[in-house]
Amino acid sequence: MNKIKVTPYMPTELEVKKIDQNSAQVIAYPFENGFAITLAHPLRRLLFSSSVGYAPVALKIEGVSHEFDSVRGMLEDVAFFIMNLKNIRFKINDENSNKVTVNYSFSGPKELKGADLENSEISVVNPDAYLATLNEDAELNFSVIIEKGIGYVASEDIRDGIENDYIALDAFFTPVRKAVYEIEKVLVEDNPNYEKIVFTIETDGQIDPIDAFKNSIIAMNGQLSVFNKIMDTDFASDDEVQDETSEISKLLDNIDTLKLSVRSSNCLDRAGLKYIGELAIMSESELKAIKNLGKKSLDEIVEKMKEIGFPVGMEFDENTLNLLSKKIEELKSQDEEE
Fold first, then answer.
1. Mean of the per-residue pLDDT values of the chain
2. R_g of the chain, CA atoms, integer Å
């Protein structure tokens, strides 16, 4: 007979295996049946979408006006040069910098590779990557803008943010080259239906694979954190919400509806008070502190508020008070716009 549970089994085992410099495995178990894939699939997606990498986003070549142009003495057309450049994986040396512009000048004969682009500002994690071949008459002067980012950004979205003489490039920031998982069965207390997740992560060298996995965990926790509010808040029933909304709507009426004397109305107006709700949340001592508001006017306001069922200094629950304050701010913003 199966045991009846009131909470799911909590996994306890974690193994981390470094395969090589850019590859690793992360293994976790045991999970209840079905729980493993529920966690593994979004983590895999976050590995690709939340891992920070570096990519060239714009290129300027001396004497070149567009990507279909050519450079005298260079074997590759500019379009092929750009394809090769995007295959080179850069890394900004200053971790606090999100963007650098690097300038290069080469003359032939020379075969250019990623290693030739390294300098004090940037490193190249695949130094053997091929870029271009220059003959003996070639002069190649170019500038590259390299940025830090996540995911993929199309050149159309980059174009508006660069100078006109630069060619915008599609930017593939993601440093994760491979993220796969396998779900295996594992035995727990004679029950063979528990599960094990085996993650295999491979990066291009811009980031350690374990760090990439950590980042995906942080991203998942961050995205889920919005739901923490539900743990700390008592949400009212539909009827309670309707009653609360109805009550607040009365408090959003203009103070003019109280039909106060001209002297009292002018004092409140000069104090910047426009809505009944603002009076309702004030204490009597706060009302007394309003400039030029005499005792006769104070007594009139207190009496009017009592008549409509919202005596000065009445206590509101926190949800109602927050909602009322928010609504009043919105109304005042609308007034200013008009």
1. 88
2. 33
Q: Helix, strand or coil for residue 117?
A: helix
Give residue-wise pLDDT tens across range 196-219.
999 999 999 999 999 999 999 999
DSSP structure string for 273-287:
--BHHHHHTS-HHHH
Q: Which residues pair with 18 in a beta bridge?
A: 24
pLDDT in tens, 130-163: 999 999 999 999 999 999 999 999 999 998 888 8
- Strand partners for 262: none
Q: Show the domains of the chain with their CATH numbers.
A: 13-51+176-230 (3.30.1360.10), 52-172 (2.170.120.12), 239-337 (1.10.150.20)
Q: Give, in order, the Cα–Cα distances in Å from 39 to each of 17, 141, 268.
A: 20, 49, 57
**Closest listed residue to residue 302, CA positions, set 279, 322, 272:** 279
